[in-house]
Amino acid sequence: MKRTIGIAAFVLLGCSAPAKGAIERQPATVRARLAPFETLVSPVFEKHCGSLDCHGATGRNLRIYSVNGLRLPNDAGLRTGAGDTSTAERIANYQSILGLEPERTEEVFAGGDPYELLVLKKPLAIESHKGGQPIRRGDDSETCIVSWLRASDQTPIDLNACTRAAIFPKE
Fold first, then answer.
1. Three-class SS of residue 127?
2. What is the DSSP letter of 37?
3. Does pLDDT of 140 surpass 90?
4. Cα–Cα 20 to 30 A to 19, which of 40, 61, 136, 168?
5. Whether the bond into 102 is cis, omega within 30 of 0
6. What's the average model confidence in pLDDT over 19-34?
């Protein structure tokens, strides 16, 4: 009898849903978007949203690391106002963006509407944003972020828009 209960418990545990709060993910599309985010998209968020009075603060749900904002602890002596944003900081920005709405972001990566994400709704003032409207409809920042969210083999990221959007303030 004990052996039967043990086997039944093993079978049930093996087929159970994830623990409460755990999320099942398909990480392949998420990993594929990291490299272009680091080089093209993170600089846009850093320039527009990463200052100390914005998302470059520890108390924010969406936390953006940048040269002019929050810095990760490091041995390189990087501090606010000094040194380029590190690879680790850009990866942390990526994780912060994806962690804001992980399931919705995955849906967008699979072809959903990027304008359903807070990462666009807030800066475009589609939804209330304490920081106002740092990104305007039709500007290079919007184009860059949307092209990254929609990127596929057939639809590449808009490199020119991302490059221009990372220059802030406009020169």
1. coil
2. I
3. yes
4. 61
5. no
6. 59
Any idea what the Cα angle at residue 62 is, between residues 157 and 45, rounded to 5°? 35
Which of 99, 116, 95 shows the shortest CA–CA distance to 107?
116
Q: Which residues pair with 70 in a beta bridge?
A: 65
Distance of CA 127 to the CA centre of its chain: 18
CA angle 48, 57, 150 (to 5 degrees): 45
d(CA 111, CA 120): 16
pTM of the model: 0.75
DSSP tag of 86: P
Task: Work out the angle at residue 83's Cα, subtended by the Cα atoms of residues 77 and 88, and round it to the nearest 5 degrees.
Answer: 75
- Backbone φ and ψ for 41, nearest 5 degrees, come out as -95, -40
* Nearest one of 54, 62, 81, 46 to 167, comparing CA atoms: 46
Supply 64's token pair.
């953006």
